[in-house]
Specification:
The complex is a heterodimer. By secondary structure, chain A is an alpha+beta fold. Chain A has one domain (5-76). Helix content of chain A is 52%, strand content 17%. Chain A has helices at 5-22, 27-48, and strands spanning 55-61, 64-69. A two-stranded antiparallel ribbon of chain A has the order 1-2. In chain A, strand 1 (55-61) and strand 2 (64-69) form a beta hairpin. The relative contact order of chain A is 0.12. Among the domains of chain B are: 5-101, Nucleic acid-binding proteins (OB fold (Dihydrolipoamide Acetyltransferase, E2P)); 132-260, Response regulator (Rossmann fold), CATH 3.40.50.2300; 347-386, no CATH class. Chain B contains twelve helices and 14 strands. Chain B has helices spanning 5-17, 20-23, 59-62, 104-119, 146-158, 176-190, 214-222, 239-243, 251-258, 262-294, 299-342, 344-349; strands spanning 25-36, 42-47, 52-57, 74-84, 89-99, 136-141, 163-168, 195-200, 227-231, 246-247, 354-357, 360-361, 373-378, 381-386. In chain B, helix 6 (176-190) runs parallel beside helix 7. The chains are: A alpha+beta, B alpha/beta.
Amino acid sequence: MAETTFEKSIKELDEIVKKLELGELSLDEMLALFERGISLSKTCNKLLNEAEKKVNILIKKDDGVQKQQFSSSEGEL
Amino acid sequence: MTVSVTALNRYIKTMLENDNRLSAIAVSGELSNFKCHTSGHCYMTLKDEKSAIRAVMFKSSADRLRFRPENGMKVIVTGRVSVYERDGQYQLYISAMQPDGVGALFAAFEQLKEQLTKEGVFDSEKKKAIPKFPDTIGVITSPTGAAVRDIVNVITRRYPIAEVVIYPVLVQGDGAAQQIAEAIDFFDVENAADVLIIGRGGGSIEELWAFNEEAVARAIYRCSIPIISAVGHETDFTISDFAADLRAPTPSAAAELAVPSREELIEQLRQNYRRAYFSVSKTIKNNKEILSRFSIKNPLDTINQHRILTDNTVRHMNNAVLTNFETKSKQLAVAAAALSALSPLKVLERGYGVAQKQQKVIRSVTQVSLGDEISLTLSDGKILCGVTDKKEERHG
């Protein structure tokens, strides 16, 4: 499984912060990195705030396997 | 009376089979000459220090073995004693066998563990990394246990942006291991998840047994999706725990290992933002300080400074001139007053006159001779006079 956008973004953001903290950059480089960092952190936040996903249970049918929404209260029956 | 060999063997067989003590007997002994034929029937000799007996275990019984019998192994077998008529050989017909001493299951566990270790199924180099941010989590467990509820609760609380797909299976009893292995294969073939959790809640060793079966271990080993195994409680270790890429002590713990916490990630993002912002503003501040220290002088500053100096000088100069001027004015006033007092006009007004000869003021009688014409200036005009007499007088 390839890295997700999120994983890539959060890695890059970490690297940017480390570079900024080292402080060995020209002002132009620093501001460009900072700008990139802000945009990455926005992307990550957006991904983290995506709509909640469902919990599904697989049901075996004659023609294969189907997904059905799972409710843990049903599971107690 | 003479009987045939066959009749004798049959008679002995009947004798033995009619003995209740021999029809269901448990015997302990050590295995030797153990052999399983391609038919599935197993043949062996059971012995102790002093004696030995031939034994056979037919396929139907051998298939139910939970361990692999080996020569030298101490076992307890149950079965009956009968005769193999063709050879006149009495022997033990074994229906069940378990290792003696330690529990059968434990022995089987150790044996399978040893075998799979040899095969490299548990090798740590072959463990796959659990993805940090899975989109889909496959859960292979009973749909009705506490385990599935715990897993779903933890995942939806920590990381609700991931999808959970539950593959319901039996987790104990006949067919459980088969179902679990099939479920693992399903996810693998369909590539239907980024990470799998297999497991169940606590139970006895027999209840957890499906997770000690070879079929499950092998399915885990061949699966290309990383698997977290969480069987029973903290203290329970199963073969599937060893075969899996990661062992979790409980199903809830497995869910925590499978997904990150969204809240923690958001906080981490916030901190990263703060750190980036802080270091950038710090650098800017530092640069400003450095700049001010090296301050390349603004040319206007110099001009201004000169201007201020000039202004001051001018002011001083003005002051000096003014002071001087005042002094002089005072002197002038005094002089003017003195001058005014000396003004000849004033003298003339008092009745004096200025006598002049040929434009020259006459100060002495010796300057004139009789008959000279002189002028006498008064305050309002001149008189021309002729000298008719002169007399010298001395004053003082």
